[in-house]
């Protein structure tokens, strides 16, 4: 009878959560009875800077590295081989390796091993920013190292195909420098196939934040959802799923906008 009483209680809480959701409220946490919206917004304060910074750094690093591979072809195969090896490593392995190598007193204790530091209201804005960057470096580097190889390989393959086209051969025949051919002509068209991957990058970073925040004890979305899963806190879990779905939708909108910017002939359709 005890299990039946527990099931009935959980069933009633679930119906209450659905009723609150229909009224525009995500409900209350089963664990501490706090509003789910407040919990998610509090966790996003740590997750958003991490994921957005990882997204921007990954795209910028992929752009620079792709240009370097096109310019210095002698190192291309060695760098691509290293990227393929890095791509084979799971996220938690990369995060643990960084933790052991760069936050270990027996190796190099360059960065903090966990947390986001203590908030000090008396410190200056610059000191708080530097402290935040110091704590976020290893989680950020973990996400970038895992996301970078696939994007660079995709951009490099697209760029190599564009460099074989007739308009590139014509531009080179007119005496245009190779770096200008790559930057002004080939790279812009090579971005089109990679935009689909870029659209999937942001939701993948949000999912990767679950692992990274758990390893580095960052009080963000990942840690919140992991603790909610362990405690069977379904309102928090469902709120997190809705938030990830919204991120996916925004990523698709961003991909459409990037496609239009890369090729103005593309028309956005409803």
TrEMBL record:
Keywords: Cell membrane, Membrane, Transmembrane, Transmembrane helix, Transport
Domain of life of the native organism: Bacteria
Any single Pfam family the record assigns to this protein: BPD_transp_1
InterPro entries, A to Z: MetI-like, MetI-like_sf
Subcellular location: Cell membrane
Transmembrane segments: 48-70, 77-102, 132-153, 190-216, 236-258
Membrane protein topology class: Multi-pass membrane protein
Principal location: membrane
Domain ABC transmembrane type-1: 44-255
Signal peptide from the UniProt entry: none
Family named by the database record: Belongs to the binding-protein-dependent transport system permease family.
Name of this chain's protein: ABC transporter permease
Organism from which the protein derives: Hymenobacter lucidus
């Amino acid at each position: 009878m005890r299990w039946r009483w527990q099931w009935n209680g959980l069933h009633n809480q679930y119906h209450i959560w659905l009723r609150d959701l229909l009224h525009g409220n995500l409900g209350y946490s089963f664990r501490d009875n706090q509003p789910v919206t407040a919990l998610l917004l509090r966790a996003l304060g740590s997750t958003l800077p991490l994921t957005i910074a990882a997204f921007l750094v990954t795209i910028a690093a992929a752009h620079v590295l792709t240009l370097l591979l096109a310019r210095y072809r002698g190192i291309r195969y060695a760098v691509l081989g290293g990227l393929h090896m890095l791509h084979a490593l799971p996220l938690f392995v990369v995060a643990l390796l960084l933790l052991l190598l760069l936050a270990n007193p027996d190796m190099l204790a360059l960065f903090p091993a966990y947390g986001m530091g203590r908030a000090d209201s008396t410190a200056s804005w610059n000191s708080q920013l530097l402290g935040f960057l110091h704590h976020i470096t290893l989680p950020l580097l973990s996400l970038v190292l895992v996301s970078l190889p696939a994007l660079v390989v995709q951009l490099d393959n697209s760029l190599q195909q564009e460099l074989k086209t007739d308009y590139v051969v014509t531009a080179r025949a007119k005496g245009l420098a190779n770096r200008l051919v790559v930057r002004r002509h080939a790279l812009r068209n090579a971005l089109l196939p990679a935009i689909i991957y870029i659209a999937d990058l942001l939701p993948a970073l949000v999912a990767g934040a679950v692992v990274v925040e758990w390893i580095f004890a960052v009080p963000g979305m990942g840690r919140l959802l992991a603790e909610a899963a362990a405690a069977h806190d379904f309102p928090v879990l469902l709120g997190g799923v809705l938030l990830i779905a919204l991120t996916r939708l925004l990523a698709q909108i961003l991909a459409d906008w990037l496609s239009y910017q890369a090729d103005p002939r593309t028309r956005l359709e409803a």
